C-alpha cells in the first residue's frame, strides 16, 4: 500500500493536536483513504523544546528548505499561524506541486485569492476546514453538500472567547472586565485578547464564509467590525426583559444591493437557536433556497477539535492523491458582487440613555427620530434617580445612516446626559 509522506509546520497547540490525532488514527487511516500516512518532518523554531512532544524527535527541524526540497513530501500542513512566513511557505509549497492543508484564517482572509490562484495554477489541493469554527464542519458543507443551493445568508457565533464572556455576563451578572478575567484564568482568552474581544477574529472568519457562500471575494478589510467591550450587564438585563439575548454575531448576507459583511454585538430573540449557544461553543446558521435553514454547532477552537478538522483535510488530500484528482475543488469565487456600505445596511436598534427627568424630553427625542425617518417601536423608562431617568428606545428597522444622523443630534441635546449603549438588533422587533 502506498505511503504518503507529509510535513507539519508548527508544533504549538494545534500542531500538537494534529500529531496526537494522526497517531491515534494510524491503524484506521489506510482503510479510510487507501494509503498510509507518514509524518516525515516537523518544522519548529526550537527543537529542544519541541522534542518533548514527539516520540521521534529526529523528525524535528528548523530549516524550511529541507521540507520544500524533499521530493518525498507530498503534503504540507501549516499550523504556524500569522501572515509571514506562513504565506511564503504555502506559496512555495504550492508552486513546488505539493498539496497544502492550513488552519490560518488570518492569511486566508487577507490573501485568499493569491493562495487559491497558486493552487489552481499547479492543480494542487489547498484545504482549510479548520480556519473557521474549529472542529465544526462548515467550509466543506458550503462548497459541496450545499452546492445545490443559492445561499442568501450565513451568520453565527464564531468566536468562543466572546461567547464565554457574554454567557457569564448573562447568567452570573458579571460585568465585562470580570468575565474577561475569568476567561483569561480558564484559558479561553489569550494574554492579549484584542483579536477576540474587538471582533477581529470573527471578522476574518466572516470574510472566508462570505467568499465561499456567495462566490465573490470578501476580505478581512471589507468586514465592518465592532467588539463587545462596551456591553454591560445592564444591557443584557434589559435584553432579557425584552425576550432577547446579546451575542457577538458574524453576519454575511447577499442582498440585491450587494453583500453585507459585519461583526457586531446584537440582540437576538431568545427563541432563536443561536441564543442557546453557551460558553465557548460556536454555531453557524445557514439559509439556502432549497435546504431552508441549517445550523452547524460544536467546539469552535481547542487543540483536538481544531486538529480534527486539520486531519480531516489531510485525509481528503491523501484520498485525492490516491485517486488522481488533486485540485478538484478549488476557488469558487467566480462572481464580482459589490460590497454594501455599512451606512446603507438596515436593522433595528437598541438605544439606552440617561436624560433629564422632566416633561418634554421624550417628545424632543421622538421628534429628532421622526425628522430622520426613524420609527420608534418601543420606549421604556426606568431607574429614576433624582433629576435623571434611564430610557431605552427600540426602533423599527431603519438604515444605519438615518439612525446615526439621529444619534448625532440626540447626543448633543442638553437634556441628554449620556448615551449609555447602542446595540443593533438582529431580525424584526
From TrEMBL:
EC numbers for this chain:
1.1.1.3
Does the keyword section mention Oxidoreductase? yes
Single Gene Ontology BP annotation: threonine biosynthetic process
List of residues binding NADP(+): 9-16
- A Pfam family of the record is Homoserine_dh
Catalysed reaction(s) here are: L-homoserine + NADP(+) = L-aspartate 4-semialdehyde + NADPH + H(+)
CDD domains linked: ACT_HSDH-Hom
Which InterPro entries does the entry link to? ACT-like_dom_sf, ACT_dom, Asp/hSer_DH_NAD-bd, HDH, HDH_cat, HDH_CS, NAD(P)-bd_dom_sf
Which positions fall inside the ACT domain?
350-427
The positions annotated for binding NADPH are 105
Catalytic positions?
205
Q: Where is L-homoserine annotated to bind?
A: 190
Q: To which pathway does this protein belong?
A: Amino-acid biosynthesis; L-methionine biosynthesis via de novo pathway; L-homoserine from L-aspartate: step 3/3; Amino-acid biosynthesis; L-threonine biosynthesis; L-threonine from L-aspartate: step 3/5
- Identify the enzyme class: oxidoreductase
Q: Which cofactor does it need?
A: a metal cation
Keywords associated with the record: Amino-acid biosynthesis, Metal-binding, Methionine biosynthesis, NAD, NADP, Oxidoreductase, Sodium, Threonine biosynthesis
GO MF annotation terms: homoserine dehydrogenase activity; metal ion binding; NADP binding
UniProt-listed NCBIfam families: PRK06349.1
Q: Which family does it belong to?
A: Belongs to the homoserine dehydrogenase family.
What protein am I looking at?
Homoserine dehydrogenase
> Which organism does this sequence originate in?
Fusicatenibacter faecihominis
